[in-house]
User: Which sequence fits this backbone?
């Protein structure tokens, strides 16, 4: 069956052309001639008996089959490079765990604690991928995802971590200029918005019994980390998980002027494919993280 197996040269050429949409740019990256790249692509299409690219206005575009194949090839090349790097740096193969993480959760909660897990499993190589939008195992090269949302994830194991509780946070200097003694005082303030929690302020205002305030108005931030920085700079009032702003709260850069909190509709979960259910690195990381969450977070069931 080896005559059905493409060469690494052909896969590397295909991957480069797929990323750049150009034979010339792929040839520059690979340091080979354009004709050599074109021959590899033609040979690969002949082997696979399908078109991988179409040409429009001097640019190559992946076909539907080509796009599917490009994801698989990118994953193959990525794992091949990682394996080579492990052998070169450690002299022996070791486990690799690629984590898909929400950006602020990763920087604010996971990074300060990850060293503890690495000390528990020093042979496991950790790779981190961040994305604000939901990960997809069929598209993203990740073994395990820290996910916010609901527990509905087909063909995957889902482990609950904790609920999300949102608190009102503000800079002391802002409150000194514009006091915030009750929810109604928010009329004098800018409400900082998070793009993935568009209705959070309206829900909080309803729970606090405040009326006449537009909970949709205010600048929007895609990452909680930016929202925390904006609140600490006095740009407005934030509604966000206090555990992500622990550093600012502890040093007094942010305070909680109002006691009302909002339990979000979603929760945090660890998710991994059923096909990897017995991966020892995944199991070890899941168990470690669940233990850490339950030790620190009062909202963990």
Assistant:
């Amino acid at each position: 069956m080896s005559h059905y197996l493409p060469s690494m040269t052909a896969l590397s050429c295909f991957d480069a052309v797929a990323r750049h949409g150009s034979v010339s740019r792929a040839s520059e990256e690979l340091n080979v001639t354009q004709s050599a790249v074109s021959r590899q692509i033609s040979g690969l299409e002949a082997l696979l008996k399908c078109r991988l690219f179409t040409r429009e206005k001097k640019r190559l575009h992946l076909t539907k089959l080509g796009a599917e194949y490009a994801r698989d090839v990118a994953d193959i090349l990525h794992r091949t490079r990682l394996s080579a790097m492990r052998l070169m740096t450690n002299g022996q193969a070791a486990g690799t765990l690629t984590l898909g993480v929400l950006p602020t959760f990763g920087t604010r909660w996971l990074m300060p604690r990850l060293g503890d897990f690495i000390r528990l499993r020093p042979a496991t190589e950790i790779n981190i991928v961040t994305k604000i939008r939901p990960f997809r195992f069929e598209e993203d090269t990740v073994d395990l995802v820290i996910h916010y949302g609901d527990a509905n994830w087909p063909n995957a194991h889902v482990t609950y971590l904790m609920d999300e509780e949102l608190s009102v946070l503000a800079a002391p200097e802002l409150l000194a200029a514009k006091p915030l003694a009750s929810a109604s005082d928010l009329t004098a303030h800018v409400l900082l918005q998070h793009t993935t929690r568009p209705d959070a302020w309206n829900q909080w205002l309803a729970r606090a019994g405040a009326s006449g305030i537009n909970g949709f108005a205010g600048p929007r931030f895609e990452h909680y980390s930016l929202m925390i920085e904006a609140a600490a700079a006095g740009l407005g009032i934030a509604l966000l998980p206090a555990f992500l702003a622990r550093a600012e709260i502890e040093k007094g850069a942010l305070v909680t002027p109002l006691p009302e909190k909002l339990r979000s509709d979603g929760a945090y979960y660890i998710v991994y494919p059923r096909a990897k259910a017995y991966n020892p690195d995944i199991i070890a990381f899941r168990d470690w993280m669940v233990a850490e969450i339950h030790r620190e977070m009062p909202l963990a069931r």
